[in-house]
Design goal:
Elements lengths: L6 H15 L4 H27 L1 H39 L1
């Protein structure tokens, strides 16, 4: 559970909130926050579903499938980190 709501999740929300807060038109800002909240809700539902069927999923994927999924998730994590750096550098200029 801490991995789902840990520092990475908090950093993503803070990054998105910083980008949305730059929007000058109030209706667009509210719409952007609503989209973020819907995204969080969809993510929570997907996490719940995956955790609910995780035992069956592990048996279905096997050891090599889990290894492949771990590498794909690692790549996605690196991509998110690179996006944080790019957003931070753009914010400095």
């Amino acid at each position: 559970m801490p991995m789902l709501s840990g520092p990475g999740s908090i950093a993503v929300i803070m990054s998105i909130a910083a980008i949305v807060s730059e929007e000058e038109i109030l209706s667009r800002r509210i719409g952007a926050y609503l989209v973020v909240m819907v995204g969080i809700a969809i993510t929570a539902i997907i996490c719940w579903l995956i955790l609910r069927v995780s035992g069956s999923l592990v048996r279905f994927m096997g050891t090599s499938g889990i290894d492949a999924l771990t590498k794909i998730m690692g790549f996605l994590l690196i991509s998110i980190g690179v996006q944080f750096v790019v957003t931070g550098v753009q914010g400095l200029s």
